[in-house]
């Protein structure tokens, strides 16, 4: 699919140029009825948060904080301050629109000043975009357009638009400075450069950066005053760039960045589509296109129960989804299951839960102005899909019963080891019981410089040894597109669903594995169980074979050939194995990283099966059930 097959610059000229597009997107500050109609407790929550910034001692962005990324690999010293500045401006801006008394204008002016005075809007981790790689400081003469710069730009553009009159009453130079910085840091680089990889005009494949950066560029474009001819040139470039993103999307809608990244992938594509839809008063839309529908539906196909999601790649098992955007997506494509996920997730949050989450102004406004309507809707049933098969992504998910979190749930993947946000995890699977995690995908630690460096696979959470796949002759799976699944197959019947995959090509030649065929089946019915069958052929006999399974529950030897896992709710999973063939040992892993402890606490466990006897050819069965 190409966006430009449905929306072109002629359409933009007809339906957007010369129109009050900003007023179509969100209510103006002077639209007192729209702001007054927000729920009183929601208004008060925003005002209370904004009041915490009155007389605020704004943190400085020190040169040493910028340097810390290059010297220590830490993103936090710089990124946390910059994110706080944006969060503060977003909060103050919305509070000023709610109240419209000018009480927050001085602090808004302060943070505008701070943002405009920053040497760069680009995060230190993204300074590889520079034409001068290797520098530990930013060159003010080479503004870089990354995710952070785009977020800052879009927020300043909305601030300038919504507070035009009150800011100009203080001084016209405030908004004048915003115009200068948007032109210098965003509009000109976007116009002049085609080599930002995320644009898609080079050889590198794009990912979520493309719709994310383009959404912010489109915001600036819609809100700033530019010559019509120049606007059309930029609109054309945005549309063509978004086409590069759509070109690499799977027809099945699967996101190889994982379900946690849905909000920054399909969710950011939605921001672009919704900006065009609203700015054109509904005339420019592609919500009826099959690919757009599939991209939206992916997120509920990966939902296990509540806030638990299948989290292959750089994802968290407890995903921080933007449920108001999910609800909006479902409404636009007229999919009640997607709407239901959004509705249920959105209603689970309290009024105060969204503060300080780094959510963009656009997303905050969607949440704010749909709050009352979502809460008034008739309750929809949770979208717990019984069977999911994504043939392009090579991911299967299945549960015992449609619409229910009760019983067993399993998901397994194929793919290759050069996916976006890749882990070396071909053939990896997870198992949940009654919607709770038992055999897991660990997720990813807090991002550092190492995460996206050549040393990425030195990080334990990225390695196949910490996923539910074999280690053969001491060799784990390798990273790279050539290390991939083969002969992936899916079979479905009313009583069972099966996934098969050949893993040999995921390993280096030195491992001596000629074949490793994995078959995973969920059996339904009176005695539900998950059956894992492994068949292998090696170049020569060996006993150097390990099978690993990661667990969130402490494993215990139950009876011979049985391992028992039980959670605090007395849900349990029994793992049966061939004791004569395999020795099982347990490893306790202490967790200290904040991103992981928020999900798993301070402990995880690795179950390790060691082959007892040398084989050249072997076949084994493992079985998992509640009894």
TrEMBL record:
- InterPro entries (UniProt xref): Chondroitin_lyas (IPR008929), Hepar_II_III_C (IPR012480)
Q: What is this protein called?
A: Heparinase
Occurrences of domain Heparinase II/III-like C-terminal (ranges): 415-522
Q: Which Gene3D superfamilies match?
A: 2.70.98.70, Chondroitin AC/alginate lyase
**Source organism (scientific name):** Paenibacillus plantarum
Grouped into one coarse class, the protein's main location is: other
Localisation per UniProt entry: Cell envelope
């Amino acid at each position: 699919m190409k966006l430009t097959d449905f929306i072109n610059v002629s359409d933009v000229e007809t339906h957007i140029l010369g129109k009050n597009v900003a007023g179509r997107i969100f209510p103006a500050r002077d639209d007192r009825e729209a702001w007054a109609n927000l729920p009183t407790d929601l208004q008060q929550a925003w005002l209370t948060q904004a009041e915490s910034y009155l007389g605020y001692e704004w943190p400085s962005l020190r040169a040493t904080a910028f340097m810390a990324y290059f010297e220590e690999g830490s993103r936090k010293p710089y990124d946390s301050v910059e994110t706080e500045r944006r969060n503060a401006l977003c909060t103050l801006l919305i509070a000023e629109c709610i109240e419209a008394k000018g009480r927050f204008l001085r602090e808004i002016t302060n943070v505008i000043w701070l943002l405009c005075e920053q040497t760069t809007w680009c995060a230190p981790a993204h300074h590889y975009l520079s034409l001068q790689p290797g520098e530990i400081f930013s060159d003010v003469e080479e503004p870089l357009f990354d995710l952070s710069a785009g977020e800052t730009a879009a927020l300043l553009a909305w601030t300038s638009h919504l507070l035009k009159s009150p800011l100009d009453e203080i001084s016209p130079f405030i908004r004048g400075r915003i115009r200068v910085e948007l032109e210098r840091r965003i509009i000109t680089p976007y116009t002049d450069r085609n080599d930002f990889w995320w644009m898609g005009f080079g050889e590198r494949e794009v990912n979520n950066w493309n719709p994310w950066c383009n959404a912010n560029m489109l915001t600036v474009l819609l809100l700033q005053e530019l010559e019509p001819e120049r606007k059309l040139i930029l609109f054309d470039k945005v549309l063509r760039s978004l086409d590069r993103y759509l070109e690499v999307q799977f027809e099945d809608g699967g996101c190889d960045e994982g379900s946690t990244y849905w909000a920054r992938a399909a969710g950011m594509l939605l921001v672009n589509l919704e900006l065009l839809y609203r700015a054109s008063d509904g005339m420019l839309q592609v919500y009826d296109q099959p690919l757009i529908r599939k991209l939206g539906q992916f997120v509920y196909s990966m939902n296990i129960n509540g806030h638990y999601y299948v989290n292959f790649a750089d994802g968290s098992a407890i995903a921080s989804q933007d449920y108001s955007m999910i609800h909006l997506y479902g409404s636009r494509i007229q999919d009640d299951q997607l709407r239901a996920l959004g509705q249920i997730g959105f209603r689970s949050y309290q009024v105060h839960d969204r503060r300080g989450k780094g959510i963009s102004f656009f997303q905050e406004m969607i949440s704010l102005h749909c709050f009352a309507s979502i809460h008034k809707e008739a309750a929809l049933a949770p979208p717990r899909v019984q069977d999911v098969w994504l043939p392009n992504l090579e991911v299967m998910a299945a549960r015992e019963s449609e619409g229910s979190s009760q019983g067993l749930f399993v998901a397994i993947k194929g793919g290759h080891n050069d996916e976006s946000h890749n882990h070396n995890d071909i053939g990896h699977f997870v198992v949940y019981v009654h919607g709770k995690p038992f055999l897991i995908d660990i997720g990813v630690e807090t991002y550092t410089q190492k995460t996206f460096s050549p040393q990425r696979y030195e990080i334990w959470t990225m390695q196949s040894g910490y996923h539910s796949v074999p280690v053969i002759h001491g060799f784990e799976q390798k990273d790279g597109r050539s290390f991939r699944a083969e002969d992936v197959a899916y079979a479905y019947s009313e009583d069972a669903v099966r996934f098969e995959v050949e893993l040999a090509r995921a390993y280096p030649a030195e491992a001596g594995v000629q074949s490793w065929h994995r078959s995973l089946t969920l059996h339904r019915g009176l005695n539900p169980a998950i059956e894992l069958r492994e068949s292998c052929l090696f170049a020569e006999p060996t006993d150097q074979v390990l099978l690993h399974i990661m667990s969130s529950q402490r494993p215990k030897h139950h009876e011979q050939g049985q391992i028992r896992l039980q959670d605090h709710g007395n849900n349990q999973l029994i793992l049966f194995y061939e004791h004569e063939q395999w020795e099982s040992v347990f490893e306790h892993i202490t967790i200290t990283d904040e991103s992981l402890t928020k999900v798993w606490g301070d402990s995880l466990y690795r179950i390790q099966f060691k082959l007892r006897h040398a084989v050249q050819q072997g076949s084994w069965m493992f079985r998992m059930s509640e009894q």
